Amino acid sequence: MEIFWLCEDCLQTVAYDDFSALSLYYSEAEVEQRITHMRTQLQDLLPLSADFDPHTGAGFEAFSTRPCEGCQSSLHGARHRFTRL
Ligand SMILES: [Zn+2]
Fold first, then answer.
1. How many domains does the chain have?
2. Looking at the predicted structure, is the pLDDT value of residue 4 above 90?
């Protein structure tokens, strides 16, 4: 089973198709570019299933230094575990 660790942005994209958080960090042009990039990258990984439990902390890293496997972002931060269906 293939496992992927995705950043907060990718989690929002996969789970809710929600990009509203992005606009807090980027200009409008950059947001457009990042959304396109993320959609393209994530498309290759679909279908994905969330494999983390917010209650036990399983499959969740609050501060990871590994690059996001969805958008390749190397920004440090939260990573959530997903598996390919
Ligand atoms: Zn990502």
1. 1
2. yes
